[in-house]
Design a protein that fits this description.
Elements: H1 7-27, H2 29-59, E1 78-79, E2 85-86, E3 110-113, E4 120-124, H3 143-147, E5 160-163
Length: 169
Amino acid sequence: MRKGFTLIKILIIGIIGISTIIAVILIDPITQIQKANDSKRKSDLAQIQRAIKQYYEDFGKFPPNPGDCLQDVNNCKIVRLDGRTVEWGESFAPYIKILPKDPSKNKTYIYYVKIDGQSYYMYGNLDREEDPQACNSGKACSSLSFIGLSNTACGGVCNYGVSSGNVTP
């Protein structure tokens, strides 16, 4: 008995290979991953927004930044009731069990609150610039320049934002 592939086996392997390539092209896994990450970013910022609104209801102002956010983006975070800075991915109890963090390790969320505590802005970087909810057709949110934050403070272009009702992201 001879060992090796018959013509039919080679044809079947070829058909399976071509079908796999076509399926990968049709599914476009990179775009699907980007859509999932962007959806998570939007959901995360909405969760944080609900938590800081509850904080506002309790104290009449939004949570402060730990320092000058405009001088150091590492200060574009939230301060807890005990005065400690909350890192993304840590507890902001009792308002939210875990403060979400960006699904990409190279990106971060930005939280900026005005000194009087009456207005805030939060930004993220969507992977898909053509997302209909992205700022300025995928370019940086216009309020960044008004505030004085870098367009890339999020680890990429800050092209998605939410804010308090009295300002526009």
